[in-house]
Amino acid sequence: MNWLRRNIWRLLTLVASAAFALGFASERFPDAISFLTRLSPVLSFLGALSARAWLGWAMLLGVPLLVLSFFKGRVFCWRICPVGFVTETAGRLNPRGKTLLRRIPVLNKTVFMVIAVTAACGYPLFIWLDPLCMFNGFFAALRMPFTVASATTGIAFVTVLAISVLVPNVWCHRLCPLGGMQESMSLIAGMLRRGKTGEEAPGAMKHAMARRTLLAAILSAVAGIAAKRVFGPNGRKVLRPPGADLERINALCARCGNCMQACPYQLIKPDIGESGIDGLFTPVLKFRSSDPFQEQYCFHDCVKCSQVCPTGALRPITAAEKKKLPIGIAVINRKKCIAWEKNEYCAVCDEYCPFKAIRLVKHGDVMCPIVENDLCRGCGACESACPADPIAITVK
Amino acid sequence: MNHEPKTSKPYADGIKRRTFIKAGSAAVAAATVTPAVAAEKPETTIVVAKGTDIAKMIEEGMAKMGGWERFFKPGMKVAIKPNLAWKSKPEQGGNTHPDILRAVVQAAQSRKVKQITIPENTCQPEKETFPTSGAIDALKGTKAKLYRPKPADYREVEIPKGKICKKAKVPKDILEADCVVNIPVAKHHGGATLSISMKNWMGSVDNNSRRGWHREGLHQCIADFSTFLKPSLVIIDATRIMLNKGPQGPGDLAHPHEIIFATDPVAADTYAASLFGKKPSDVPHIKIAAEMGIGCADLSKVKVVRVEV
Predict the structure, then answer these.
(1) Is the C or the N end of chain B the one with fewer CB within 10 Å?
(2) Is this prediction's ipTM beyond 0.85?
């Protein structure tokens, strides 16, 4: 009873966070699915910094937490954060309590700094460690039709819960980059205050700290630039949702699952290995599903996924912009094509193509399809409708 | 079959072909009673209304068809099949004009039918096509139920006269309806040459069925299915017709400003094809349907009753 009274506020925020993560009000306001993730300045601002783009007014949802941390330190963590509450509660399961924590170094500010510096280099590392994003991903996994792949967006949160049982509070006190961000902000606020009053921190300590910070910053900048060079252009080609930053999506993507939840046709799935180790759990488009009662192509007027990405891995685009952005290109296998091979009337690809990218040529008695590469946007309408078995047209 | 077959239900669970034919001929018999469609020498009569006021055209055209009473009786279950396959605005001619849909629904409703269902298996997502086509607005305030059938809404039927297409899954509401009204739009079609009333049934059957038709011979399958499902009434939207880039469009339009009324889908399609300058021999499924005895594809044997509005 006491516990309940003490924690009523945190319970309420937990329920509210879960509701938003589960898509509360997203029927009416499609953006609502992204609200929880956008609260984190690590995602909103460092994402925008690395994407070098304005991500829409919704990114300003990150402002309150930034301001709060400047004046009040980590008050968000102890009062509001749903992950903080859940991991703390999970930690109570461990009988040895907090004693385990002492041996572990405080890494949260370092983790935050690595993200911030690499974000400034345009290739953020570990942005997916943001707690709100993990929490959101867990619920995204619950909302999608269950598959092994779809469950992977929940892995991060479950892992954090597990380590919180093994070593209580290690996440919040030692690792969390959002906590690190808040501590850094209040440190900066403290320095600014001391600067005004003329107070000085003890000299030796100040120097040691400054040296360490500088070294870590340089190292992470090097790592960020190196990763950008090595991973960026060498990613394996997979189909990405429209508006994706193709070279940097593996770094920018926080694996929050918003795009997967936003897709009205459930075409976006977490990648499990197609795009390489650094692309694990990033969003890929899958047009063809075994259920022919699902619309299975990236609808040419729909830009919902791009509107809910907190980090700019998918840039917010308009329907008009989408019509100019190729997702991939359709390729016909004439050996499987009903028209080319069997000489039957078909042309379903032409029928469904919203871009008029199929040219029909007379071959034998019937009209046969050819893809006009400069018109094709790779939306997958043809692939999803192709009646051939196995299908004769696929987006590559 | 666990229930008594009812003679008033033409398609009761599919296999009742005989019952169905009886019901069909009953409708033809009923036609002879009415003045304009007096079954004289020409075997088939169609009505063509020309004008710009769709509601008026439907009213006048149906008067010539013998009035709505001929088709809609109180307590009936009515199923309507418009074409709402694409995200296409009314003026683009990709879908049946919403005013026609509304006129038919209102007519049914004012004749106190029990239920009006509009199952439509769209090509593009129904969340997009239903509002853009104008159908949602057109049906506002009516009791008609427009929906995209889910797997559970389909029943498999046998098509005894089918040459290739021997089975298909059809929405339950169409099979159980006492009166099925087919209200297609006439337009160009990349695979089927033209999409008019018989082709419109591809938007009724389930996705697996229609994919199969493409694999196995599109034109024959369209005709095969029309041996099974014969509408009580066909109303073809030819107020504007898409001449190319069909079926989705947007393509070039012509504006015949016509609405075609018939009970014979083949005659109706043949007349509509003539608006595109096409003969039945240019549109294989019309030709095949005539050969299979579904209807008359010889316009010289069809009496065309014209009304100007």
Answers:
(1) N
(2) no
